[in-house]
Write a structure and sequence with these properties.
By secondary structure, this protein is α/β, with parallel strands linked by helices. The chain contains ten helices and 14 strands. The strands form two sheets. Strands 1-8-2-3-7-4-6-5-9-10 form a ten-stranded mixed β-sheet, with helices on both faces. Strands 11-14-12-13 form a four-stranded parallel β-sheet, with helices on both faces. Helix 1 packs across helix 5. About 0% of the residues have low confidence. Bound molecules: threonylcarbamoyladenylate (TXA) and magnesium ion.
Length: about 350
């Protein structure tokens, strides 16, 4: 479905911690009519549609320019809604949900036959999560249906952590944005496939693998690198270039400053994500963003920093690589994808 930028996208402010009921009711009415509403979650902003309405979900794919072979996550507010979208709820799912829901963990399970095929890209499984954000939960409850909601950005570009990021990509293409401030987590949920044995990590995210392993034992972390052949994609974000800024991004180790300086001397406008401000005089044409040293704060700041560099019009982004440890897994994963040409 092609979509013209003809909608007028309404922006409604909402209190993140205690959403105003009248705001939620208006947004829920749009969803019940088959429209699209972007809303904050604890990870990134999502673009929601009634998951049980194939036409509404088709609009999500059109608005994002998302390939039809990339399935979307279904968001639920309670266990009744889980049973509307999954055909099976195995014991490990139950234990993980009890421990981590609502929260940034997405579980892939056999799909319910009544769930429209477009949600799962024609595949036999569905990805489901219960978000830990008062606005998201209130909205799903008020809509009274599970919401199909990928990140609220044009396909393959940066995920949004602010309403203004959503509008930059999707103004005129969706009905409403609920503006609820910066999302706290800043990085997407962890996607775990519970239909394979052992369970497979499909996309690293805010929920650390070792926390999952404490509950259900060993998780296969390797097979997420498997390449898709045709539809549907076996693993998330498998499109080589994903989560990417407009400017070309490259990662660098200890020599990052040399690289930045070299680019600047050659007239390239360059942005640098680093852990420490450079000591030497800053050259013209370099925009430096000093990132927090711990992975949670870094994640919360990550997409916003890249959005800022894009907005500043830099031509090239150099990122000083964080350490190769478990807590940086998801961030290194996004950096790898963002730097794929
Ligand atoms: O934090 C998040 O997960 C955010 C917020 C809005 O909840 N959502 C999000 O959705 O990141 P999206 O569509 O941008 O990413 C979902 C990923 C996709 O890469 C997709 O391939 C994967 O989950 N996925 C969805 N359904 C799947 C399925 N049935 N099997 C395997 N992977 C699936
Ligand atoms: Mg996305």
């Amino acid at each position: 479905m092609e979509i013209a930028c003809t909608l007028s996208t309404e922006v409604l402010s909402v209190r993140a911690d205690s959403p105003q009921p009248d705001v939620i009711v208006r947004a829920a009415e749009i969803l019940r009519r088959g429209g699209l509403v972007a809303f904050p979650t604890e990870t990134v902003y999502g673009l929601g549609a009634n998951a049980l309405n194939a036409e509404a979900v088709a609009k999500v794919f059109a608005a994002k320019g998302r390939p039809g072979n990339n399935p979307v996550i279904v968001h639920v507010a309670d266990m009744h809604q889980v049973r509307q979208v999954v055909a099976d709820w195995p014991e490990p799912a139950s234990r993980l949900a009890q421990r981590f829901w609502p929260g940034p963990l997405t579980l892939v399970l056999p799909k319910h036959p009544a769930l429209p095929d477009i949600v799962t890209a024609g595949g036999p499984t569905v990805a489901v999560r219960m978000p830990a954000h008062p606005v998201a939960l209130a909205l799903i409850q008020a809509a009274g249906v599970p919401l199909a909601a990928p990140s609220a950005n044009r396909s393959s570009w940066l995920s949004p952590t602010l309403a203004e990021h959503v509008l930059r990509d999707l103004a005129g293409r969706i009905d409403m944005v609920l503006e609820g401030g910066a999302t706290r987590g800043g990085l997407e949920s962890t996607v775990l496939d519970l239909t394979s044995s052992p369970p497979r990590l499909l996309r690293p995210g805010l929920m650390a693998p070792h926390a999952i392993e404490e509950i259900i034992g060993t998780v296969d972390r390797t097979s997420r690198a498997r390449k898709p052949v045709d539809s549907p994609l076996p693993a998330p974000g498998m499109l080589a270039r994903h989560y990417a800024p407009r400017a070309a991004l490259e990662c660098a180790g200890d020599a990052a400053w040399n690289r930045v300086e070299h680019l600047a001397r050659n007239g390239v406008r360059v942005g640098w994500l680093t852990f420490a401000a450079p000591k030497s005089t800053v050259l013209a044409g370099i925009t430096v963003i000093v990132m927090p040293p711990d992975s949670s704060s870094y994640a919360a700041r990550f997409y916003a920093a890249l959005h800022e560099l894009d907005a500043a019009g830099v031509e090239r982004i150099v990122v000083t690589l964080p350490p190769d440890t478990d807590e940086w897994l998801a961030i290194r994963d996004r950096l790898r994808r963002a730097s794929t040409p």
